[in-house]
Write a structure and sequence with these properties.
Structural class: mainly alpha
Strand content: under 5%
Mean pLDDT: 86
Oligomer: single chain
Length: about 170
């Protein structure tokens, strides 16, 4: 299997080159055109990436999550939701990397086979980084009006978070 994985990509490139020669396409010029388009796309989405990283860092450094969870601590305890999972649930629509770091901390503290470890795993799989998708992908193709996409995406995240809590509670 290791040998196969090492030859798949070079084999794929060779097939593309031979196919291009067969169709009488200048493969090198097509490659350069694609590289130029990639650089243009990177240049166009760079401001969105910088703005998003800046906003996430401000949000995390403001300790808003800790303050918000302190207000609702009794409520989460009453409905048997571990307080350690809530920062992950709140940040999942914003940043996948931040939630992976939180999930790693949960695994280190509680273990991956604990209830909260399994809940973190299910939560990671049930939701998407909606704001990241809207900021990066939509801006890269020039979509400016995201009003309905944002609402539907955040609603889908809310449903995913709710289902993650329900499924984990029922199964584990």
């Amino acid at each position: 299997m290791n040998t196969l994985s090492k030859i798949v990509i070079p084999l794929f490139v060779i097939i593309i080159v031979f196919y291009g020669f067969k169709k009488k396409i200048n493969v090198y010029d097509s490659f350069l055109e694609g590289a130029k388009e990639g650089l243009i796309i990177t240049f166009n989405i760079f401001p969105s990436i910088i703005a998003m990283v800046f906003a996430i860092n401000i949000f995390l450094d403001s300790h808003f999550v800790t303050f918000f969870l302190g207000i609702f601590k009794d409520f989460f305890t009453f409905i048997h939701i571990p307080l350690d999972i809530m920062p992950m649930a709140m940040l999942r629509p914003i940043s996948g990397t931040a939630t992976l770091a939180i999930m790693n901390d949960i695994f280190i503290t509680h273990g991956p086979d604990s209830y909260i470890g399994r809940l973190a795993s299910v939560l990671q799989g049930c939701t998407d980084t909606t704001i990241y998708v809207l900021a990066l992908y939509f801006s890269s193709i020039g979509i400016k009006k995201i009003r309905y996409s944002l609402g539907v995406g955040l609603f889908a995240d809310l449903v995913g978070i709710t289902v993650a809590f329900l499924i984990t509670g029922l199964m584990f």
